[in-house]
Amino acid sequence: MVLMPEHSHSMPPPMPLRPIASPSPSDQPILTKAAPTPPGRRPLATLPKAQLHLHFTGAMRPRTLVELAVEKGVRLPPHLLDMDPLTVPADARGWFRFQRAYDAARVLVRTEDVMRRLVREAAEDDAAEGSVHLEMQVDPTSYAPWVGGITPALEIILDEARASSEATGVDVSIVVAASRIRHPLDARTLARLASQYAGREPGTVVGFGLSNDERVGSTAQFGAAFNIARDAGLASVPHGGELLGPSSVREVLAALSPTRLGHGVRSTEDPDLLKRLVDDGIALEVCPTSNVHLGVYPDIAHVPLPDLMAAGATIALSADDPLLFHSRLLAQYEAARDVFGLSDEQLAELARQSIRASLVSFDRRRIWNAQIDRWLANEP
Where is this region: Disordered (predicted)? Predict the structure, then answer.
């Protein structure tokens, strides 16, 4: 197998080790801090919800990033420390800027302790935001060189997912994701590995994904890998319909038979396609801040969340890469409330849809839906 990092065309060279005086971890934001709750509204941090689209390195806390960089004497590039998509000009956004930042952050993830820390802190942050379930997406080949191979890399993450689930009360499961920029045979290897750990409980692999720049490679060439994963009972959860439009979504539907679609917001550009997604019950992992940061839409108000809701789509709001976007799951719900004017009842329905789209047992969904009922029953 050719070992190349997720979200990247090649392994970035080691960053120079130089003393750094700034920034300090305390300069970085705490992303779980809730915005003020408007009068007459229920606090969104206590709304039970599921996070179904969160990348491994991209889940790192900004403060952890700086702390690790200081420990290793690594000078972080300025673009990694100031990534607010609402202040970056629209013509300066895009995949290349995102990719450079992701690569720079991943250089710091080279030990088992750091890998475990990322899982644990992600679970803690989701717990602080009211999440009851987290599905974290990872390509273990990105970390394999530092821990002895792809199998140890995945087992470390799964073991910490189990431990963090017990410690935080957030059920943490894993989606193994192949990368579009590597050979499809590598994806088959990952699918076979993921299949060995398939399950529906915390600390198991629940799905198989396809990530990275959707403009690269042929979707159909990854069909064999998804067949392997599907035969093992893993859900098909590839990316599609963010950087490219409806035609790419149709390719994903034809080649990978998705259970859920990572993003999928561009399906609104083709009403017939959107109707097909709704009729087939294919849930969409909608990450509004990602759409803005990557230049798909100029601001949150242009993200077609209301159109998706009006069409009857199953929507799972998610954060994607909080480290790079400085925005976690709670902020996506706050935007739905404050930008789109959704009521508490509508927000509760979005939370139900995220749970409905999650890859867990019926009993767990029933428990979490009852918790949403109690949230709505409480007076604002």
Answer: 1-41
